[in-house]
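Input/output pair, single chain:
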Amino acid sequence: MSRTFISRRTMLKGGLGLSLSAALPLSPLLAQISEPNTALVAKPARVALAGEPHPETVVWSYNGQVPGPEIRIRQGDRLTFTVTNRLGEVTTVHSHGIRMPHAMDGVPHVTQKPIAPGETFTYDFDVPDAGTYWYHPHTNSAEQIERGLAGPLIIEEREAIEVDRDMTWVLDDWRLSADAAVAGGFGNAMDAGMAGRLGNTVTINGKVPETFEVRSGERIRLRLINTANARIFGLDFGTLRPRIIAYDGQPVPPHEPQSGLVILGPAMRKDIIIDMVGEPDQSVPIIDRFYPSQAYRLINVVYLDKPPLRTRPLTSSIHLPANTMPEPDIERAERHDVEFGGGMMGGMSGGMMDGGMMGRMMNGGKMWTINGVAFDGPAMAPLLTLALGRSHIMTLRNKTAWYHPIHLHGHSFRVIARNGKTTRYREWQDTVLIPPRESVDIAFVADNPGDWMFHCHIAEHLASGMMGIVRVT
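Output:
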């Protein structure tokens, strides 16, 4: 696959030469739905992804916009949303990261019948935890998400921390052709067996960004959501010095990123606090450095030429209140080993599907495995059966040459170790990024009964076998 990455104003090679002219204003960036009862319509639309002078892009959208409207309600409220399908194929909606009843999880043939064209389905559940989440389809995800079906879902704390602005940035990347159309080639072997479908155009909230205007002295809460099929972001905020306050919606002791980069694999979220202490007219670039040889400027943060909002940063606490997950009993937890295998450049070894070898898997489009098995439909036996109400520790081993953001439905888990070394913050997450040839230990209480999907959130890896069912009973 030819990889193309964004420079300050144009693509380095291939694809589009995009003028990055869409400024992000001080006003809200996303259409919001703040009522607990809402309607989403999945349908084709035309949007100005690339901006002038490029033509509009035909996308698949919620309510005619990309990303879909920001749904924002309060912790403990009941969320009811009705999804009408006006696409030419079946769909569902999965509320990623929310601990909800099994029947509301949006997984076709596991929790519900897919929503056929012209049909409507209502999702209705209580939201127990505050945080930053998102919604997306779980049918033909590699194409439906890439074409635009995703939106932010924000659950506000009952008592908010003090900030001047609470902003959401939905980060996405797109593989566009020269006429700004979403390129075809879905499901090709190179994407499926390697890093996934990396695009040539990065957007924030559905626009190719140029500047984000701030005022000296203000405090901003920035909710970052990665909805890309495969791109991993590693954001360098330079002199802005962000402090991370939540991983995947779950509170964490405030801290600066240990690597200097705010890293988000596909489906992951991080909430950060930035006190804008620069001078009026100052400009600070935010650089995506995850792929070091292909770094690019994502956006410029520009201080307005106005008097500072305040002369000293706020001193109020930025610690978020704890959510409601039960604490796992590490000493008495049941232990499970999970191994991720397959893919190109990794030997393609150890893979089985219906008793066949890896060659048969590739012929069937299956290139990835969990515990030596490629997912071939919900009728397959569960990967693991977990005792309801018990604590469990999973050791997740990535035996491949590629990164994998691994997501468990219906639960959040503590990341308690990496490569056998205890983590500093034991952070709660629902999607954990595992580098090649490394391992991660996660711990949680299996308190939500049902069959839960467990998969890589690089959409092409999911589609080609890296998915299974964890049964809690």
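The domain at 171-303 is CATH 2.60.40.420 (Immunoglobulin-like). Confidence is low (pLDDT under 50) at residues 1-29, 347-361.
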